[in-house]
Write a structure and sequence with these properties.
The protein is an alpha/beta fold. The chain has two domains: 56 residues, Arc Repressor Mutant, subunit A (Orthogonal Bundle); 191 residues, Rossmann fold (3-Layer(aba) Sandwich), CATH 3.40.50.1360. It has ten helices and 16 strands. The protein has a seven-stranded parallel sheet with strand order 7-6-5-10-12-15-16, with helices on both faces. Strand 5, helix 6 and strand 6 form a beta-alpha-beta unit.
Amino acid sequence: MIPAERQHFILSRLAECDILSIQQLTELLDVSHMTIRRDIQMLEQTGRVASVAGGVRLSRKLDQELPHLQKAAMNAAQKQAIGAAAAAMVRDGMVVYLDAGTTALEVARRIGDRSGLTVVTNDFVVCAYLSTHSDCTLYHSGGMVERANQSCVGPAAAQALAGFNYDIAFISTSSWTSSGLSSPSELKGPVKVAVTAQAKRVVLTSDSFKYGVVAALNILLISAFDTIVTDTGLDAGVVAELRDRNITVVIAGDDPSTQNEGDAP
């Protein structure tokens, strides 16, 4: 059976059940674990499946973004750990971009004591927090207001954000795979593209629950990121694949000795 036939078989079986283990697939297809992992990687790169511990599932679909308050209550411990690990990358005097979202707010809560920071954001909650909890030079993008997410999006926001040179940019998302980020809104893409084009270091901050979620519009390739900060829930095979592609992966809350060189705070 050629790879395309095996991959079609995997998709067909996943349509009948939620999750298949790698062991099940090796027995059903009579091939090695390595062959199955390669097939899963190929399917992941198209956004159709997502790796889980010891197996694979179909990608989840994201039809619309959740409101800010609802997001804040989800995976709070993971977001706090990610925020702490990401904040450790921020040094005095940096120009920092904080994207919209509750994970970016966790970063903001941990950088207020840095000296000489310039922080740029499109998020109203992040901006409000830093305006009262830090002495940083603070800019908000302006632009079209997305009320549910408490942020600004669209071409006007993107144009404003393109006017800065960032030492480090922290990008948030509600949906990502090993191929990149997607969104149900075409207005978010220009903002993220504008920022990543102007940043020396681009960091994706996202908990593992959002991995394997796919929305209608592709907005950034995973190769746009130098670093990904996530939690221990991300499948080890996915972590290895990302590192093989020269992306630094920081597992928040993990033993620093297991991180890529240069990952540890």
